[in-house]
Amino acid sequence: MRVRVQTYPAIVFATAPTTATVFPMSASSSASGPFPFLSPEWIAAAQEIRDEFSDRVDAPTLELRANVVVSDSPFDETDILGYVDTSSGQMSIELGQLEDPEITVTLPYEVAYSLFVGREPEAAMEAFLRGRILVEGDVSKVLQLQLPNDAREDPLAREVAGRIDAITLLTDDE
Questions:
Q1: Could you give the CA distance from residue 40 to residue 143 in angstroms, rounded to a whole number?
Q2: pLDDT per position in the chain (174 positions), as tens?
Q3: Contact 97, 103 (CB under 8 A)
C-alpha cells in the first residue's frame, strides 16, 4: 500500500507528516532509545525509521532545497546543521548544508522540539511572528510547507509518528 505524505517544515526528520524528519545521518543505531531529540543517537534511529518506511510513501509533492539550522542545542555547543532536498524527486534529509539552497530556516532547539515532538504548529507561527524563526530566501516555499488536514487521520502518518515518539526522550516540560 502506498500512501501520499506531504512534507512538513523540514524534518520530521523522517516522520510522516514530515517525513522530515529530521536531519537523519548515516550512522548506525539499531538501539531502541529513547534518546534526546536531535542527538546523534536520535538522528541515527530516525534515519532507520525513515529508511524502513521509504518504500511506502509517494514522491514529495513540493520541490524544495532548504538548509535548516537548529541553534541552542542542550547537548552540543554548535548549531545542528541539516538540509531537506526534494529536487531529485526523492526526499533527502541529511546532516550538512546545501550549496545554493532556496531557503535557509534558523530556529532554536526549543521551537524545533515544540514543532516536531510536541506537534504544535501554532508554536512555529508564534515563534515566527516573534522573530525566533528566521527565513532567508524564497519565503513562499515556507508557506507551501503545511501539514495536510487529514495527516493525523492517515494510518501511515500515525504509525511513523508513533515510532518517532518511541525513540524520543521527552523533556521535563511534558
A1: 29
A2: 332 233 333 333 333 333 333 333 333 445 577 999 998 899 899 889 988 988 888 788 889 999 999 999 988 789 999 999 999 888 888 899 999 999 999 999 999 998 888 888 888 889 989 999 999 998 888 777 665 555 567 788 888 888 989 999 877 554
A3: no
Strand-pair partners of 69: 81, 106
What does each C-alpha distance from 104 to 3, 76, 134, 150, 160 come to in angstroms? Answer: 28, 21, 8, 27, 26
Judge whether 23 and 38 are in contact, CB under 8 Å.
yes
| Cell numbers standing for residue 103 | 531557503
The answer to whether 35 and 45 have CB atoms below 8 angstroms apart is yes
> What length does the chain have?
174
In the chain the domains, ranked by start, together with CATH numbers, are 35-156 (3.30.1050.10)
Structure pTM? 0.75
State the pairing for strand pair 65-71/103-108: parallel
